[in-house]
Each structure stands twice: as structure tokens, then as C-alpha cells.
Amino acid sequence: MDFDYNSTRPKLILAEYGRNVQNMVDYICSLPTKEERNRYAQVVIDMMGVLNPHLRDVSDFKHKLWDHLHIISDFKIDVDSPYPVPSRDAIHQKPELLNYPQHPIRYKHYGYTVERMIEKALGMSQPEHRQRMALAIANFMKMAYVTWNKDSVQDEHIIQDLAELSKGQLTLPADTVLTKLEFKTPPPGSRTKSASTVNNNQKSNNNGGAKKMQSVQKKSNGQKKKKK
Questions:
Q1: Which of 183, 198, 218 is the last residue of a domain?
Q2: Do both 83 and 56 map to the same domain?
Q3: What local confidence, expressed as pLDDT, does residue 194 receive?
Q4: Which of 87, 115, 135 is the last residue of a domain?
Q5: How much is the pLDDT for 93?
Q6: How much is the pLDDT for 26?
Q7: Are the C-beta atoms of 205 and 171 separated by less than 8 Å?
Q8: φ, ψ for residue 185, nearest 5 deg
Q9: Contact assessment for residue 153 and residue 146, using Cβ atoms and an 8 Å cutoff
Q10: Residues 151-163: pLDDT tens digits?
């Protein structure tokens, strides 16, 4: 006894419509007269709209259903379509390849941005600005180094790498102390007053106001007793 498995059946072109729609479209392609094909094609189009109601939200969803009919038939169905028949190349058009930037990076733990910063620094005409820029780049390099390497790094090593990347044009004194830059998200409540601080301030204000009211009431009661 032979069993009919999906693995032995022809591949579904549009699986969202199911095997029955595929078989009906294949049957329409085998009909001898165009009049019959047109009549059955309209029935299948209506059924496809019922099976995929979400297409009704798409503008001109009838056009899309007819396009799907031609795709399911592998563009072999010969019917009078109210819309232009789509071409196979337009449906199976391959996307254009994206050109990803490829930059040879000498020290990948510093990144390509450091090399761009060095180029900008070398283009500065004033020596003072160039020196300040070199110090800023060295600080950034230390931050990048520590980000990718858990071990600490000596400032002399960063200064040496800076001179090597700039081909000896950006140099810093050997005793320069670099700052480890840290770009971290501030903890919650650091930008504004925390909720606990606000509540404590409110409580202290309320307590102060209550004490004032109590002192006023005591004075008024003392004055009344004196009058009596």
C-alpha cells in the first residue's frame, strides 16, 4: 500500500493558500476552453479572498489576488485577467547587494574611528590644537583598550601605539598621565532628585508645619486660660 506524503507531493508555490487551491489552479490550467478557465478562475479568486481576509486591508487587494493566481500556476494559466499579468522576473527579482564598508584596521581593538581621528589631527595647522587633539585621542584609545581587554594598560603603551599609528607625527611626553574615559549610563535617579529624597523633603516640611501649628495652638490656649 502506497502512502501519500507531503514530501512526495509537488512543492507548494504559495503555501499560505494550501494544497487544495494549488490543485484547483492546476485543474484550471488543464481545462480546454478559455470560457471555462475564466469561470473557474473567478471562483478560485473569491475563495482565495476568503482564505486570506487580511488582504482586504491592502489597497487594491483584488489585483494582488490575481497576481497570486498567476504565481500559483507558475505563470501557465491562460485567463482573461482584469489586471496586467505580472512578469516572472518582476516577481522573483533579486535584491541588490549591499556594499559594506571594508577598512583595513591595524589595531582592531582601537577601531577605525581612532584612525580617522588621527587623520583629522594631522590636518590641523596649529601645533597647540594638534597636541590637544593627540591627548584626547590617547584618552579615547585607553578607553577602547580597556573595553576589549579586562587587564589594565600602561599609559606608555598607549602613547607608543599613538605614535606608531600616526607614523611618529603625534607624540606625547612619556610621563603623560592619561584619563580612563568611561561612558556609562547614569544610575536611576542621578539626573533628578530621587523619589526618596523628595518624600523625605515633603515629610520634613509637613512635620515642620505641624509643629508650628501645635505651638500656635498652645499659645492660644494659654491666652484663654489667663483671661479666665
A1: 183
A2: yes
A3: 43
A4: 87
A5: 75
A6: 92
A7: no
A8: -75, 125
A9: yes
A10: 778 889 999 999 9
| Structural domain total, the chain | 2
Are 69 and 108 found together in one domain?
no
Residue 137 covered by a domain: yes
- Dist CA 118 CA 120 (whole Å): 5
First to last CA, the chain: 118
Domain assignment present for residue 78? The answer is: yes
CA distance 120 to 143: 19
With CA atoms as reference, report the closest residue to 37 among 68, 11, 76. Answer: 76
**Structural domain boundaries enclosing 33:** 11-87
Alpha-carbon torsion, ordered 146, 152, 156, 157, to 10 deg: -60
pLDDT number for residue 160: 92
Helix axes 34-51, 18-30, angle to 10 degrees: 170
Place of cell 578607553: 143
Domain contains 93: no
| 174-to-16, 155, 159 alpha-carbon distances in Å | 69, 8, 7
Which cell numbers hold the place of 88? 516572472
Taking 50 as the pLDDT cut, the residues of the chain under it are 192-198, 224-228
In a domain, 166, yes or no: yes
Here the cell at position 178 is 592619561
User: For residue 78, how many other CB atoms are within 10 A of its CB?
Assistant: 14
Tell whether 15 and 82 lie within a shared domain: yes
Same domain, 125 and 176: yes
Q: Which amino acid is at 225?
A: K
